[in-house]
Design a protein that fits this description.
- The chain has a domain of 72 residues: Beta Barrel (OB fold (Dihydrolipoamide Acetyltransferase, E2P)).
- It is built from 5 helices and 13 strands.
- The strands form 3 sheets. Strands 1, 8, 9, 10, 11 and 12 form a 6-stranded antiparallel β-sheet that branches. A 5-stranded antiparallel β-sheet has the order 5-4-3-6-7, with helices on one face.
- By secondary structure, it is of the alpha+beta class.
């Protein structure tokens, strides 16, 4: 590694490893954001297919569905649990579903049996032998359900899941990629110099893994003596806890545009090829 006459480390004399942007996306605290972004995006893509299937089925029932009077053979309930939030904000919700079992005959007299969920009020009014309206597809009568379980326009609300999950995932990946690309450019073309911490400010508007990151403000001198100010968002508490006003730090900046700068982490040296 070669140093410039003024004592700065010129990173342009080093060769960064390939895939530097991807490596930086999984650097320190940003690993959590990147993984969450990938998981949420994958969940959004996966639910797109589920939403498409359910909406397509609703549309087919509206176009081709037939109705018949069925007979309740028995009824029961079951519960499902869903969990939201993490840590101390974690909440578990139990939902009770009301199910009826029934038989019915299609127009050609063929009998079928099935079961399906119905609203709780209807479920309470039914008993064994009660009549219940069923809808089915004439070319596929095994596809049937109680008319009362019809989703109708509510089926379109399912679209909110892939939009919500996918959108949140893409937003997380956007911030992770933007940050990684910024630092990849600095590590590929930047120059390392000494700086001093001016102040640090907690970012209460951002929470990652139940913690708030810090904005670290700093100043450093350019080769011509000009004082340059900079700011960096730091997620690693081990770094922020050790920094106080006046603390000496390393800063990497772009010689052509010193306003593009960031705190330099020693661990980033692993991203460079040594020798050759």
């Amino acid at each position: 590694m070669a140093s410039t006459p003024d004592g700065e480390l010129d990173l342009t004399t080093l060769r960064p490893k390939s895939g530097l942007t991807a490596r930086l996306m999984f650097d320190g605290g940003w690993t959590v954001l990147t993984i969450l972004g990938l998981v949420f995006t994958a969940a959004g893509v996966g639910t797109i297919f589920l939403a498409s299937f359910l909406i397509s089925r609703e549309q087919r029932y509206e176009r081709e569905g037939r109705t018949a009077q069925g007979t309740v053979t028995r009824k029961d309930t079951y519960t499902t649990r869903s969990t939201t939030g993490t840590g101390r904000h974690r909440r578990t919700r139990t939902t009770t579903h009301y199910r009826v079992h029934y038989t019915f005959a299609t127009e050609d007299g063929t009998r079928h049996s099935n079961h399906g969920n119905v609203p709780s009020r209807l479920w309470r009014s039914l008993s064994k032998g009660s009549s219940i309206e069923i809808e089915y597809l004439p070319d596929k009568p095994e596809s049937n359900r109680p008319t009362a379980s019809r989703a109708g326009w509510k089926a379109w609300l399912i679209v909110l899941f892939p939009v919500g999950f996918g959108g949140a995932g893409l937003l997380m990946l956007f911030f992770s990629v933007r940050r990684a690309r910024k630092y990849a450019a600095l590590l590929s073309n930047g120059r390392l110099t000494k700086a001093a911490v001016d102040r640090k400010e907690v970012r209460n508007d951002i929470t990652i893994n139940n913690r708030h990151p810090y904005d670290i403000h700093y100043t450093f001198a350019l080769p011509d003596g000009t004082i340059q100010e900079g700011k960096d968002l730091i997620l690693d508490r081990r770094i922020t806890d050790s920094l106080e006003p006046g603390s000496p730090i390393g800063v990497i900046y772009m010689p052509a545009d010193p306003s593009q700068c960031a705190l330099f982490r020693e661990k980033w040296m692993k991203f460079f090829q040594h020798g050759g």
